[in-house]
Design goal:
- This protein is an alpha/beta fold.
- Among the domains are: 140 residues, 3-Layer(aba) Sandwich (Rossmann fold); 102 residues, GMP Synthetase, Chain A, domain 3, CATH 3.30.300.30.
- Helix content is 33%, strand content 24%.
- It has 21 helices and 32 strands.
- The strands form nine sheets. It has a nine-stranded mixed sheet, sandwiched between helices. Strands 7-6-8-11-12 form a five-stranded parallel sheet, with helices on both faces.
- The structure holds 5'-O-[(S)-ethoxy(hydroxy)phosphoryl]adenosine.
- 5'-O-[(S)-ethoxy(hydroxy)phosphoryl]adenosine binds next to helix 12, strand 20, strand 26 and strand 27.
């Protein structure tokens, strides 16, 4: 898009259709403002009312205990998230309503009603108990997108065993690191899962990971892909364990602050960190945002395309929608298998009403062409959502016009693993949408754009995005590392949570997120620390030093661009280049494989020895590198020109 049309798109505000507004929960900006103000000025009243969304075993006594930066919300309350997602619906007319509708990549379909899902979850909770899992024990879940993955999560929540879901695309090394960091006792996995016509062999990765761990006593294996495999002493088949399990399992009465899950995500330094979420505050955030942002109605079929390995899959595939008694569609495989219209075929055939996906997918669909979309009747859709990275106005307009047929509001939702749920969005029907802007703060979110000194900047000025007070669904800590939690999030800007993102706020109060301003990349909506990829590269015996930067990419948002110096005596070759890419895939997972690796004589450094990342980013962006992947680049001259600046 050229600059003037981009500017036009930015200034454009698109009003939601009157038909949508009429039935929306929040029908106009005035009502939004009133509720938003109340959420900040009278939090006791606002959260007191909101907390009725939860069925409590014991009511909470105190809204918030805040000993910065440590928060406890709904102090003294007792509840169970699995009970709230299942039992209360089973005891209502929703009992025979579909809770999960699953489609496998090869095309199988399974529907589980609330009564059926409840039964499976109770049985699996008993399996976990019979394997010695007690409240507080950690359970790792490394699964394809199949109903058993959701069953395992809800079973953990039922007995108070925090789960750590590991994305099925991560390598054995990553599985090992996560198991070791949280000390998981059990791993729930599958023989394999389908992705783009291939079987991803998950159990093999678990087998490769376990020799490097010491806490795992049992591996429970779902037979999904029918792979021919024999199980070891430590392994049991899921179906065999389930056959012997009782379907009666009372939900444990858990404290509001009982840990619900640990989810690993990349930061600017070191290995991924375990983001810790607890029970009541997280769950209420999930319920409230699902209700207001997706405008979820009882009769809706809702589809969030995220994998449960990411936070979006936790909050918006499982906890929010099931907590409200909605129907959640899950699909196992790739968007373009067997052809680029798989998503639209699913929307048409299942009559999906609410659809939530990532800009990287939207841009890929744009590239594949409108015909794949237009082939299908998408008239069931009534609301579209976007998450994971900034959506460019061009992709936003395409989504709105071609998929939503200018009928469906588009909710862009800004949030993070750490925030637990949506923080910024345009509540559908309440306010006009601005393509490219995430919108206004959600209830209870005290958001600001500040400069380096922590002072709020004027409208239309770029700065750091911070949250100025605690909110219920915030992370409680980094698992096992409270010091890092404090340093990482609460030390940049005094008294504020620093998001790591840059943003500006316009004169209407809309936030425009410009992306990460720390050393975190966002590749196809996935967070990736440059430090992680660099340490994967230097763990290869041929590599002396590595520096990784992001390069703008039309589809993925950012691509991974690596500069590598090799050890003395090693000659850079095409084979080595390819070997290093594979090595990163093995160390982290396919999503981290550098798109480009360039060999360099030395990396450009400042006088104090810091790698000149800004220069490398410019070189990556500007193509100031030779075409041949084996050529040794010499950045010394450029670096010496720049030494004064950095
Ligand atoms: C980015 C995903 C712009 C942002 C839910 C954030 C976004 C990081 C948006 C968190 C959005 C997410 N617009 N940027 N709507 N949503 N981001 O933890 O940089 O995987 O800090 O959570 O993704 O990624 P995470």
């Amino acid at each position: 898009m050229n600059t003037s049309s981009a500017a036009k798109a930015r200034s454009r505000a698109i009003k939601p259709k009157a038909g949508f507004c009429k039935q929306a929960l929040v029908a106009n900006r005035k009502t939004y403002e009133k509720l938003y103000r109340q959420s900040l000025e009278k939090p006791e009243k606002f959260w007191g009312d909101a907390s009725r969304e939860i069925t409590w075993f014991k009511p909470w006594k105190k809204l918030l205990s805040w000993k910065p930066p440590f928060a406890e919300w709904f102090v003294g309350g007792k509840l169970n998230v699995s009970f709230n997602c299942l039992d209360r619906h089973v005891a209502s007319p929703r009992r025979h309503k579909a809770a999960l509708i699953w489609e496998g990549e090869p095309g199988e379909r399974v529907t589980l009603t609330y009564a059926q899902l409840h039964r499976e979850v109770c049985k699996f909770a008993n399996v976990l108990k019979s394997q010695g899992i007690k409240s507080g024990d950690r359970v790792a879940i490394y699964m394809p997108m199949i109903p058993e993955a959701v069953i395992a999560m809800l079973a953990c929540a039922r007995i108070g065993a925090p789960h750590t879901v590991i994305f099925g695309g991560f390598s054995a090394e990553s599985v090992k690191d996560r198991i070791n960091d949280c000390g998981a006792k059990i791993v729930v996995t599958a023989d394999g899962g389908y992705r783009r016509g291939q079987v991803v062999r998950l159990k093999e990765s678990v087998d490769a990971a376990l020799p490097g761990t010491s806490t795992v006593t049992r591996v429970i294996v779902v037979r999904r892909a029918g792979l021919d495999m024999s199980l070891g002493d430590r392994d049991v088949w899921y179906h065999e364990a389930m056959a012997a399990a009782s379907d009666q399992c009372e939900a444990a009465s858990l404290d509001s602050e009982h840990p619900l899950f640990i989810l690993y995500t990349s930061g600017s330094t070191g290995k991924p960190k375990g983001i810790l979420h607890t029970t009541a505050g997280y769950f209420l955030g999930a319920l409230l945002s699902t209700k207001y942002v997706f405008d979820l109605k009882d009769e809706d079929l809702y589809w969030c395309t995220a994998d449960i390995g990411w936070v979006t899959g936790h909050t918006y595939v499982v906890y929010g929608v099931l907590g409200l008694g909605g129907t959640s569609l899950i699909y196992e495989g790739a968007p373009n298998h067997p052809e680029p219209d798989r998503f639209w075929k699913i929307v048409e055939e299942h009559k999906v009403n609410i659809f939530y996906t990532a800009p990287t997918a939207i841009r890929a669909f744009m590239k594949w062409g409108d015909d794949w979309v237009k082939k299908h009747d998408l008239s069931s859709l009534r609301l579209l959502g976007s998450v994971g990275e900034p959506i460019n106005p061009e992709a936003w307009m395409w989504y709105y016009r071609t998929v939503g047929q200018e009928r469906c509001p588009v909710v862009d939702t800004w949030w993070q693993t750490e925030t637990g749920g949506h923080m910024v969005t345009t509540l559908p029907g309440a306010v006009p949408m601005k393509p490219g802007s995430a919108g206004l703060p959600f209830f209870g979110v005290d958001l600001a754009v500040v400069d380096e000194s922590g002072a709020e900047v004027p409208p239309d000025t770029g700065g750091r995005l911070v949250i100025r007070r605690p909110w219920p669904s915030m992370l409680r800590s980094i698992y096992g590392d409270a010091t890092r939690y404090r340093k990482q999030y609460w030390s940049d800007v005094k008294g504020c949570y620093f998001t790591g993102d840059g943003a500006r706020r316009d004169r209407d109060g809309y936030f425009w997120i410009t992306g990460r301003i720390d050393d975190v990349l966002n590749v196809a909506g996935h967070r990736l620390g440059t430090a992680e990829v660099e340490s994967a590269l230097v763990s290869h015996p041929a590599v002396a030093e590595a520096a990784v930067v992001g390069k703008a990419d039309e589809i993925k948002g950012q691509a991974v661009f690596a500069f590598v110096t090799v050890k003395q005596g090693i000659t850079p070759t095409t084979e080595l280049n390819e070997e290093l890419r594979r090595h990163v895939g093995k160390e982290i997972g396919a999503i981290a494989k550098p798109d480009v690796i360039r060999f360099a004589e030395v990396l450009p450094k400042t006088r104090s020895g810091k790698i000149m990342r800004r220069l490398l980013r410019e070189i990556a962006a500007g193509g100031e590198v030779k075409g041949d992947v084996t050529t040794l680049e010499d950045f010394n001259a450029l670096a010496s020109l720049r030494q004064q600046e950095e």
